[in-house]
Amino acid sequence: MPYSVVIAKPTKECNADCSYCSAPPDGAERWTLDDFKLILDRLSGNLTPRVDWIWHGGEPMLMQPDFFRACAEYAQAQGIKLNFAMQTNLLSYDTARWKGVFEEVFEGRISTSYDPYKKYRTVKGNADTYDRLFWRAMDAAIRDGFRPLVIGVYDEGSAQDAQGIYERAVAYGNHGFDIRFNYAYPAGRAKESGMLIKPSTYGRMLLDLFERWIDEMPAFNITPLDQMLAKVAGHRAQLCPWTKSCGGRFLTIDPDGSVFNCSEFSDLGDRKYRFGNILTGVIDSEVQSVDVRTYIGSEIVPALASSPASRDIIRRARNVPPDCRSCPHFQECEGGCARDAVLFEKGLGGKFAYCESWKMVFSRLKESVLSGEADRALYRLGIDPVAARHRLTASELIAAC
Ligand code: SF4
Ligand code: SF4
What we know:
The protein is of the alpha/beta class. 39% of the residues lie in helices and 13% in strands. The strands form two sheets. The protein has a ten-stranded mixed β-sheet. Strands 11-12 form a two-stranded antiparallel sheet. It is globular. One iron/sulfur cluster binds next to helix 11 and helix 13. Residues 240-241, 243, 246, 250, 261-262, 264, 337-340 line the site of one iron/sulfur cluster.
């Protein structure tokens, strides 16, 4: 506390029906404007002077433009400065209804998702419809001057298609969108799927992308490579999973008011990582349904911050697996983030399952920084390559002592 990032899920309803969705409809009612006002009133006094407020879902665009305008007006009237952003499937974007809101309320802070397996992305069961609506919306959004970050999740079978989305971004020339390549993980409709991509496959996929990106330096960035490069150069990275101090700074609020650290924890749907409920004031205890306490008004957010799940996640930043501390990449990786640690039933003390992928990529990035190969990428990230080399050489010397 105070919180600097709020991820708000006003609905988990969606206009698509993808078979791997990590946050499928949960039956809860959509937020009304009054729900937003109540939540913001309760958060008031527990927020940093400027807060990143990310609308998420489900599909947040189902809430319609007037809802987002009214929320922004209410926040402004209360003197609370919120940087609104949105993570959306973009399917309902059209210039006449949305351009103004994207510009005035979100100031272009839009990200979207597009996964390589066409057959799993469907609207009313039809993959062609999804594809047609998505690229029509992207074309319109890019024409309107936006560059949505496109996030995709990759499994063992689709890793080979990572170059396909790279090609799509290249085709937009100077308007090419930034891309994020994530590993698919078991949550939502894919909860029982186990490990969906091997760490070696995910690492190889990122390395193949790196070889091409570093050689061509197109107009767009690739995450997590850019964030990892920043960490190698000794800079702070802004995006997950590199925002290691999220515990106590991030809050995610589900449609029913349930509160988790972040959207990724919410997607896991595991009650032991839930803080409580900001609408009802119920705070979760260590043992479910025992000793549950209910708070009111301004007591609620401090009580959520003190809940067992919140305290455990804050502690994870320090309680990393012992072998991480002797890892040559510990300064950059910091032992994996809290959500990454708990995947595959490992719990908050768990070893990050994709450790091998990070080791593969960090080793290659370090080599690239030291040889000067990464200079153009570093300049683009606003990082001095000479200082980056100096930092790497110094830390390698310290490690050798
Ligand atoms: S736990 Fe990981 S995914 Fe969640 S906010 Fe923190 S860094 Fe991001
Ligand atoms: S790369 Fe692996 S061993 Fe090294 S700090 Fe990260 S999780 Fe730990």
